Amino acid sequence: MSQWIYIGLFFIVGLIIPVGAITFAWILGPKKANPIKQTTYECGIETVGDSWIQFKAQYYIFALVFLVFDVETVFLFPWAVKLGSLGLFAVIEGIVFILILIVGLVYTWRKGMLEWV
Amino acid sequence: MGFWNDPLKVAADWLMGIFTGWGMPDVAAQILIGFLGIFILISLLMLLDIFLVWVERKVVSRFQDRIGPNRVGPFGLIQPFADIIKLIIKEDTTPGGADKVVYNIAPMLSMMSVLILWAVVPLAPRIIGVDLNIGALYIIAAGAIGTLSIIMAGWSSNNKFALIGAFRQVAVMVAFEIPMLATLLIPTIFAGSMGLNAIIEKQSTWFVFLAPLGALIFLIAAIAELGRAPFDMAEGESELVAGYNTEYSGMKFGMFYAGELLHAFTFGGFWSILFFGGYRFFGLEQVSAFLAIAVIIFKAFIGYWIIMWVKYTLMRIRIDHMLGFNWKFLTPLAFTLLMVTALMNALLAGTPTLVYVLGMFLSNIVLGWIALEIARSYSRKEREKVEGMKKVATTSQSTL
User: To which H or E segment does residue A15 belong?
Assistant: First the structure.
């Protein structure tokens, strides 16, 4: 448990330093804002419309495929840690588990979900 | 157990004596010492980061046949300090349409996600922030905060370039995390632990000899995670200005920039820890803790140099090629390698070290060769398809 206190301290110190640097720069820097300076940068052209729009669904599909793999790999970590003492049967079990994952990947592949259209 | 062997414990004991002498409770003194140690480590990291700016600029200019910074100080060493002064006195503009809170938090998170990675980096046998027994998972978890900061920066800027850059970067980071996770499992299998210190201690033979293919896949995935060339879709200068940090200026931009450099250096360090023995170098780490730190910094710099070398040699890859490469080649290959490694590990258990290492090495080489052959035959098929289409075009022109 005490280990996680130090991790928490790392988070705090890791935040203090960038916050300090940015605040320091904010104090020292000039503050002369005007509407033209604050327009959205677009190579000198005036922006048309909002940029908070609907985006390509492909990103969402990739994220879904990622989610499946990510969760399943977390289950593989304990298996990998104890592999040395578990013997051949556990290895075969793990391989079956990975093969199921790969069947999922092949399915998404065959469905054309991995193509960037 | 002298000062040269375990400086951290000596210093901690000394401080503990002072603080408890002031009448501080033990727990508070321990937390204060931890806080001081972390503060010193992170301050040193920031100093290293400033030095990395110089290294990066000097190396890129050498690759491009230029001299690089050489005016401010000897060899331009003071140049990054001049850069920082410039960044500090710059105006901190926020675009009018931006989501201000998210826009301001993003650069801080970007830097923090890199700094907290150093919590689990073993610098010497007994100099380690926290020897977590799930160190390998912690790397991935902390890296996810970096992904979050990028999507926050791109979305909140209310700029089309930034938004497209962030989407691409997140798609790439998310995709390449899979082969990285799969290759992180390989040192875990060999060491029987996820703790980075335990992984280093098991490396009497460097894991790169046991899993050369794994080391290569990890490096490729790490470069993609870092968003560096040839996978720098997020900042394709020729199309997206600066990608997700287009709207940032002053110190906030500096945080993204410094964070990226330190991230690359950190992953050079992780590469050396997982596959090249970390602080171990022919028993040198037993002599003094300071030598061990020098060894790991040196190895991390070599890893960083390789990442820079790749960055300045290869050109950018198109996003559909990049994601196709990951999902259709790297991910199946990484998982096949994982299965082969697990199987070989079980079959070769109990054999002499030499047989074990040779068996692992050869299985990696064979697997890599098969994968390359499959990729080659696929690319030949694709090329024939394209060339066939060209032929049709020319014949139709000649008939006209």
Answer: helix A2-28
The token pair at B120 is 């689990």
Residue B5 burial (CB count, 10 A): 17
The CATH number linked to A35 is 1.20.58.1610
Predicted confidence at residue A61, as pLDDT, reads 81
Alpha carbon of residue B99 to chain centroid: 29
Q: Which amino acid is at B267?
A: F
Contact B295, B285 (CB under 8 A): yes
The dihedral through the CA atoms of B113, B40, A22, B52 has a sign that is: negative
3-class DSSP state for residue B236? coil
Q: Partners of B128 in the beta sheet?
A: B122
CB contact under 8 A, B188 and A101: no
Q: Would residue A117 count as lying in a domain?
A: no
Question: How far is CA B258 from each of CA B52, B113, B251, B262, B342, rounded to the nearest angstrom?
Answer: 8, 12, 10, 6, 39
Q: Is residue A10 part of a domain?
A: yes
pLDDT of B47-92, one tens digit each?
A: 888 888 888 888 888 888 888 888 887 888 888 888 888 888 888 8
Q: How many structural domains compose chain A?
A: 1
CA distance B205 to B308: 27
ipTM of the complex: 0.86
- pLDDT given for residue B217 in this prediction: 92
Residue A63 in any domain: the answer is yes
Of the candidates A28, A85, A91, the beta carbon closest to that of B343 is on: A91
Say which residue the tokens 């990395």 belong to: B52
Q: What type of residue is A102?
A: I
Domain of A26, in residue numbers: 2-110
- How far is Cα B236 from Cα B168, in angstroms, rounded to an integer? 10
Given this model, what pLDDT does residue B384 score? 86
Query: Rounded to an integer, what distance in angstroms lies between the CA atom of residue B129 and that of residue B197?
Result: 11
Which pLDDT score, from 0 to 100, does residue A46 have?
75
The two three-digit tokens of residue B350, written as one number: 């109990």
More confident of the two residues B398 and A11: A11
Instruction: Please report residues of A whose CB lies closer than 8 A to that of B167.
Output: 55-56, 59
Asked if B69 and B79 touch (Cβ cutoff 8 Å), the reply is: yes
Total-model pTM: 0.88
Residue A49 has pLDDT above 80, yes or no: no
- Phi, psi (deg, nearest 5) at residue B122: -80, 120
Of B97, B116, B323, the CB nearest to A11: B116
Shortest CA distance to B254 belongs to which of A17, A36, A34?
Answer: A17
Say how far apart CA B257 and CA B53 lie, in whole Å: 9
Mean per-residue pLDDT, A47-59: 75
- Shortest alpha-carbon distance between residue B137 and chain A (Å): 8
Q: Which of B130, B174, B182 sits opposite A63 (nearest CB)?
A: B174
Query: What are the residue ranges in chain B where pLDDT is below 70?
Result: 1-2, 234, 236, 389-400
Interchain contact, A91 vs B246, CB within 8 Å: no
